UniProtKB/TrEMBL annotation:
The keyword Ion transport does not apply. This is GntR family transcriptional repressor for pyruvate dehydrogenase complex/GntR family L-lactate dehydrogenase operon transcriptional regulator. InterPro entries: GntR_C, TF_FadR/GntR_C, Tscrpt_reg_HTH_GntR, WH-like_DNA-bd_sf, WH_DNA-bd_sf. Gene3D superfamilies: GntR ligand-binding domain-like, Winged helix-like DNA-binding domain superfamily/Winged helix DNA-binding domain.
Length: 236
């Protein structure tokens, strides 16, 4: 006599867990972002706060959410526990700066490709606002502020790629190697006495390609942008 294994019926808490998991996987909720509060989730889903807490506790148990006492729950960076990026202290070393640029060329090319295909119209509008701020900051601010503005533009492209691995890795990479990225801009300004005009035009090319949803062009110009800077420094 055969028996049929009964499957456990999904509860409303299970459904919320799966919904939040899907939002994390698609980076609708990106690494480092705050999870909606229990009160907001409960009101939006028509659930008790106890049921919401059960779902978020499951997310914490499997490592998708970081919980800190007295702070909002945040989406975990799933790559960070498994990735060790060494040599973050070599921000002024030219050879290391060139290696960082090589990685950036690949990373930002892929982020631009996915951003072109996956970003919503609203996200493209926000990216356009960030691009405008990038140009304004480049007109009048310090080298450090320019480096931060430049990286914020590329970080937003990565964020809107909606590719979990790219978003997670770029977040770690940019944070760990900001000194090297800043060092590249500082070295470039010292060498030429100004911000190279070619870089500003390349930012415009990246922005236009993404706004046009021309993924192949976006990938190419984003890579070429970083490799151009690398070529400027390689002659040192």
């Amino acid at each position: 006599m055969s028996t049929v294994k009964k499957t456990k019926r999904a509860t409303r808490s299970d459904e919320l867990y799966e919904q939040l998991l899907g939002m994390i996987a698609s980076t609708q909720l990106a690494p480092g972002e705050r999870l909606p509060s229990e009160r907001r989730l409960a009101a939006g889903q028509g659930l008790s706060r106890e049921m919401v807490r059960k779902a978020t506790t499951r997310l914490q148990a499997v490592g998708f959410v970081d919980v800190s006492q007295g702070r909002a729950n945040r989406v975990a960076n799933l790559v960070e526990p498994h990735l060790s990026l060494p040599l973050e202290g070599l921000g002024d070393d030219l050879a290391f700066q060139l290696q960082v640029l090589e990685v950036r060329a690949f990373l930002e090319g892929e982020c631009a490709w996915y951003c072109s295909t996956r970003a919503s119209d609203e996200e493209l509008a926000l990216l356009a606002e960030e691009y405008a701020r990038l140009y304004e900051r480049g007109q009048r601010e310090t080298t450090l502020a320019r480096a931060k503005a430049d990286l914020q533009f590329h970080t937003q492209i990565a964020r809107y790629s909606h590719h979990l691995l790219l978003v997670s890795f770029s977040q770690i990479f940019y944070e760990r190697y900001f000194n090297a990225i800043y060092g590249v801009l500082s070295r470039t300004l010292k060498k030429f006495g100004r911000y190279p005009e070619g870089i500003r035009g390349q930012h415009a090319d990246i922005h236009r390609a993404i706004q046009a949803r021309d993924a192949e062009t976006a990938r190419r110009v984003a890579r070429d942008h970083i490799l151009y800077t690398r070529g400027l420094l390689e002659a040192d």
